[in-house]
Amino acid sequence: MAFRGNYNRDQRREDQVRRNERIRIPQVRVVDEDGEQLGVLATRDALERARDKGLDLVEVAPNADPPVCKIMDYGKFKYQQQKKLQEAKKKQTVIKIKEVKFRPKTDEHDYQTKLSKIIKFLGGGDRCKVTIFFRGREIVHKDRGLRMLDRVVEDTQDIAKVESKPMSEGRTMTMMLAPVKK
């Protein structure tokens, strides 16, 4: 019989930062809201000082000896942390891998169309996986596939660099291109 209790709900909701009555250590090093050290105080006294100012006592360095607590507005602190995470997420760049497939018998016009797609992907900052797929007896002519990959490298040499050389695996031959940083 499975029992689903809500015994751990408070810990899941909060981000594991201890504050106010949750600080169970007898003595803590206290820093006030201006950043000045108040020294090592009993937790009750530190909590009382925080309440007098209408603020919270928040544990900032739990692994220190004694743990460091700061008198601050916890809501404001949490809001600032959330804003920092959003800002970091905004600055993060996600590199996608786009794939373009060729066949050894791909004609000139189709080649040019697919090449323009590769150039577009690389221009957008994405990496590009160029795949040559061999069907039936085409597998005997791997040199044609290699020539086509060399031609792609030659045509994109000013905007791309070869990240992984052409590799043959089963009926496919693949190569990775990465955009050149400007």
Notes on the structure:
With 182 residues, the chain is an alpha/beta fold. It folds into 2 domains: 9-90, Ubiquitin-like (UB roll); 97-179, Translation Initiation Factor IF3 (2-Layer Sandwich). Helices cover 35% and strands 29% of the residues. It has 5 helices and 8 strands; from the N terminus they run αββαββαβαβαββ. It has a 4-stranded mixed beta sheet. A 4-stranded mixed beta sheet has the order 5-6-8-7, with helices on one face. A hairpin with a 2-residue loop joins strand 7 and strand 8 (172-179).
List the helices and strands and how they pair.
Elements: H1 9-13, E1 27-31, E2 37-42, H2 43-52, E3 56-61, E4 68-72, H3 74-91, E5 97-102, H4 108-123, E6 127-133, H5 142-155, E7 160-169, E8 172-179
Parallel strand pairs: 1-4, 5-6
Antiparallel strand pairs: 1-2, 3-4, 6-8, 7-8
Structure summary:
The chain has 182 residues and is α/β, with parallel strands linked by helices.
Rg over C-alpha atoms, rounded to the nearest angstrom: 30 Å
Largest sheet: 4 strands, mixed
SS field, number of helical segments = 5
User: What order do the strands of the largest sheet run in, or round the barrel if closed?
Assistant: 2-1-4-3
Note the beta-strand portion: 25-35%
Q: State the helical fraction.
A: 25-40%
Mean pLDDT: 88
- Poorly predicted runs of 5 or more residues: none
Q: Which of globular, elongated, flat, extended, rod-shaped describes the shape?
A: rod-shaped
CATH level 1 class label of the largest domain: Alpha Beta
Structural class: alpha/beta
What is the count of structural domains? 2
Order of helices and strands: HEEHEEHEHEHEE
- CATH H-level homologous superfamily name of the largest domain: Translation initiation factor 3 (IF-3), C-terminal domain
Distance between the termini: 61 Å
Report the CATH topology name of the largest domain: Translation Initiation Factor IF3
Beta strands, count: 8
Q: In the CATH hierarchy, what is the architecture of the largest domain at level 2?
A: 2-Layer Sandwich
